[in-house]
Amino acid sequence: MNPALASSLNVSRETFERLEHYVALLHKWNPKINLVSRGTLQDVWERHIRDSLQVFEAAEGLTGAWVDLGSGGGLPGLVVALAQRPGFSVTLVESDQRKAAFLRTVLRETGSTGTVIAERIEATEPQSAAVLSARALAALPQLLGFCERHLAQEGVALLPKGITWKNEVAEAQKSFSFHCEAIKSCTQEGAVILRIREISRV
Ligand SMILES: C[S@@+](CC[C@H](N)C(=O)[O-])C[C@H]1O[C@@H](n2cnc3c(N)ncnc32)[C@H](O)[C@@H]1O
């Protein structure tokens, strides 16, 4: 337990302990199945955990079914599940069977609840999510297509994007109408979390 780190992440002791267990499993499994790029593993708390927790914070005021698409090694969806905030049920969609096995292992070993769907997003039964997240999965136009399938009408998408986010928004506006708020990232200069709702085709 590192109290200074736990406090800077603004998580409870219990959540921090689950996150520590997750980080240990990431180190153990990563050499075999490449869950995160090897170079980022030494800096996992900043590059991945803090980066995912800020997506969670952007969900302030929301509750219900949280669906994370293309979860990979669990970012940000598994971190949301490990935080165990009341009012959310978390589903992780990841088509790679080995990564899905990893996600289930972390949930089981940390005593956390969550569902892992080891299927392709396009083939998964529509989820009617209240909150939909996806990090490093696809460009915004494709992500909004996934939202059409999996986000409830009143739902909110939380999509971390890098410094070219304005270009992606402009590209997506050619095919979709949507309300978009850009929340500054605390982990990368120029990056944002797009908070998107009221999506429809133009
Ligand atoms: C670049 S990784 C990002 C993983 C994680 N979100 C992160 O930020 O580290 C993209 C993940 O999405 C999964 N994926 C890509 N296309 C998918 C699809 N159509 N259906 C389900 N999973 C998909 C891949 O297997 C991979 O694990």
Automatic annotation (TrEMBL):
Keywords: Cytoplasm, Methyltransferase, rRNA processing, S-adenosyl-L-methionine, Transferase
Top-rank EC class of the record's enzyme: transferase
Entries under InterPro entries matching the protein: rRNA_ssu_MeTfrase_G, SAM-dependent_MTases_sf
The reaction(s) this protein catalyses: guanosine(527) in 16S rRNA + S-adenosyl-L-methionine = N(7)-methylguanosine(527) in 16S rRNA + S-adenosyl-L-homocysteine
Organism domain of life: Bacteria
Places the protein is found: Cytoplasm
Keyword Zinc-finger attributed: no
GO cellular component term of the entry, any: cytosol
Hydrolase recorded as keyword: no
E.C. no: 2.1.1.170
Binding site for S-adenosyl-L-methionine: G70, L75, I121, E122, R135
GO MF terms held by the record: rRNA (guanine-N7-)-methyltransferase activity
Task of the protein: Specifically methylates the N7 position of guanine in position 527 of 16S rRNA.
Family according to the record: Belongs to the methyltransferase superfamily. RNA methyltransferase RsmG family.
Record-given protein name: Ribosomal RNA small subunit methyltransferase G
